[in-house]
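Hello,

Our lab assistant flagged a job as stuck in the queue for most of the afternoon. It eventually completed. Since we weren't sure the result was trustworthy after the delay, we are filing this so someone can double-check. Below is the sequence as submitted and the structure that was eventually returned. Let us know if re-running is recommended.
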Amino acid sequence: MKSKQTVAALFFLFCLSSCQYEKDVRADQPNVVIVFTDDQGYGDLGSYGATGFTTPHLDKMASNGMRFTHFYSAQAVCSASRAGLLTGCYPNRVGISGALMPWAEHGLADDELTMAEMLKTVGYATGIFGKWHLGHLLPFLPLQHGFDEYFGIPYSNDMWPVEFDGTQVTDSTHHKFKYPPLPLIEGNETIEHITTLAQQDQLTTRYTEKAIDFIHRNQSNPFFLYLPHSMVHIPLGVSEKFRGKSAQGLYGDVMMEIDWSVGQILETLEELNLIGNTLVIFISDNGPWLNFGNHAGSTGGLREGKGTSFEGGQRIPCVMQWPGTIPAGVISNKLASTLDLLPTLAEITLAELPANKIDGVNILPVLQGDQTANPREVLYYYYGRNNLEAIRYRHWKLVFPHISRSYQDVLPGNDGWPGPYSRDTVALALYNLRRDPGESYDVQKLYPEIKKKLISIAVEARKDLGDGLTGHPGEYRREPGRLEE
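-- returned structure --
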């Protein structure tokens, strides 16, 4: 009898110790805030050389933390980039490509573990306030993918039956006539429809207010706040607080309001004494939509923009702050991607990685300032349904022959109206991004061994993920979620 009592007592003490350990781990876990803008160019922050407007809060973040110069989105288009961020996978691995339309009947699959679902397993409250764009139907909305709260629009803010000047489209032959009214969703329910530019003007403020309220309500436990702004995607919208404030015009006004939004988040974290235990990340989904002229951002001198596999399409601004872990005032030239955030957060929070294969790598040593760390040496530039258009290895980039959207040799539009695209028949080319970030000089004849190395990497990529350009199906791609028949 005494033996049984001893075993029971030891078991109770073990459980108590385990529970206390779990509690201590959770108490030390940092809050995570990801601010994700839409169509913002690499050159659209003060710390990246922006002109005509100021971003003081984001510049202060860069001074207090780390600014990346070689950080990449998962792909240079809306839905695909978001799939990569939230799953740690190249979007073509999880069956998401392009920008999902309001009539799409597929979305992110149930068995893909998102960042939110992963963090919930270690006690995080999770909220998203902004643009989702991974499936607008009920089975694919955020609450079905690990988020406790959702407020925002389900896809891009130009997917509505409204002309660029704000007039309602009534002509059945107009390409926008087929779009349904743009829903604003809370939880799983549509609470209103956005039908005017004046309503779009309020989106940044409304998302920000919801985000601040979420922080207040979850200040006593670890939280994951995902703030994917609808801006600076066209149509541009800005509140009266910032309209007319920048020298650049409406685009600059919108960027200043996004900077204000980040400032509000940081100020709230300071007021609640959470700033020292919060990792704040600011990134964009892809490069600027350049054919919108003065309503588009800047690539900072990089080639091309959104919808291309050149640097202006996929290289994005990234600023991270986490006092005590990320050293202040550091500029990192390490290769990194949105793909890497999920495994990095898993390492930080002691969460288990997804059972499915992912493509991200843990970049925590880079965040901690380890100058010798190079966790990522290779990046694939996929576009379209599954086209491998380029490979990066260290500072080398091999571009494969393909047909690309281009913004060159055509005039952009202005004041919210688009200009045309041109088409570029891209030839095989090798670029040294250390010396030629604008991808102007093909050096494959000078470096045949480097070219051979990148071609060998492409062979492995095609075996794994496939390549529509060369007819490879890929062995390890997964299907998106689909409505049941």
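-- support follow-up --
The delay was a queue issue, not a problem with the job. The result is valid. The domain at 28-372 is CATH 3.40.720.10 (Alkaline Phosphatase, subunit A). Residues 1-26 have pLDDT under 50 and may be disordered.
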